[in-house]
């Protein structure tokens, strides 16, 4: 009997691809991790225990066939491994880079529970698909037989792109409308290159364009066309705009110059990476160079901001978060990366006010902060932060970046469609059995339905809504029913 290539986790230790040294990586926006050599990927994949109940797949929103493609990788059958990973995910190399594997697949790996260290699933996934691109194994998007029906997708982020690909495979004419001048949403303009190099996103977008999906970039629904006008153009619509409204900080001085939104800061940086002219970067208002930077927040967006500020040449970078390290929402790996690069985390702290100098609202010069402590657990089970009296402190700041998360924009008003139903949180209300909104033939998916979440969930939502739209459009074609 041939030697079993798997279950090597006892004799083979966990090994991630090496990271570049902090002094090297803090000066550029290239990804910080090297890629596995073929032997390294095979060796790490061979550590999989091939569980009868694969918790890694169970806890993956896409339910990727992880143990199966790990086995194929260990056996050197990389093309088959890629084909299997591609069956459930439209963007496996992107998920391999930016998914919080420590909270999903790897965090639920059985051998992690045994104390041997999880299989490095994300790094293997990235290796498989990058290899597929290099070898020419990534097949073009081939449309299904033309159905004579068209679909409009509003939003070119991960949910919209995933749905567009599936709908094109089904044979529909697909048009994608996005307010930005490049597709990809937060993949393009929100996530820095050191986590996701932009060529990785652009080649995915180009594949969709080559497959016949029509992109209308720089297109604002409500300005260039109302929602009703788009409904007249298409047999069905999908709203997949994501959530972009920044959560506010209510504190004196928040309107001072130099107190900026996280997405404005990240978008300016990413545009510079594309070679665009960015006046707000050039004049210094969205540029951390030479400044004392304070980032407020503890999620992955805050981690993106602190690490971007380092690369822009900030004098110092501090992150204020109201809970402690164990209770932060962001990836622990990202915190570790940031600390290696020189970021200082000030746990259990929250801004009380923003001090400013100069006329009018002035220019920010410092953050007055309160020390916090964790009180009793709230309804969610998390211990609620509360002010620890008498322990205020001040931090110098030339640039303050607010990274407290995002809420839904007022889409009924923006889209000129007052009858588009929303929840009390402003997200779109859908029938969860069909994923259709209050408007006939208008569906919604991704963060605009579930609230700010992970890219992998957006891809899953795009896959799910495409199936519902396909079923609805087939029925519409049979009955000749028009949208209301």
From TrEMBL:
Q: List, alphabetically, the Gene3D superfamilies matched.
A: Alpha-helical ferredoxin (1.10.1060.10), FAD/NAD(P)-binding domain (3.50.50.60), NAD(P)-binding Rossmann-like Domain (3.40.50.720)
Q: Which domain of life is it from?
A: Bacteria
According to its UniProt record, the EC number is 1.4.1.13, 1.4.1.14
Please provide the record's keywords in A-Z order: 4Fe-4S, Iron, Iron-sulfur, Metal-binding, Oxidoreductase
UniProt domain Dihydroprymidine dehydrogenase: residue ranges: 25-136
* Source species of the chain: Stakelama sediminis
Select a single GO molecular function from the record's annotations and give it: glutamate synthase (NADPH) activity
* Pfam families for the chain: Fer4_20, Pyr_redox_2
**Which parts of this chain are annotated as the region Disordered?**
1-26
The transmembrane segments are: none
Q: What is this protein called?
A: Glutamate synthase (NADPH/NADH) small chain
What sequence ranges are listed for the domain FAD/NAD(P)-binding? 151-462
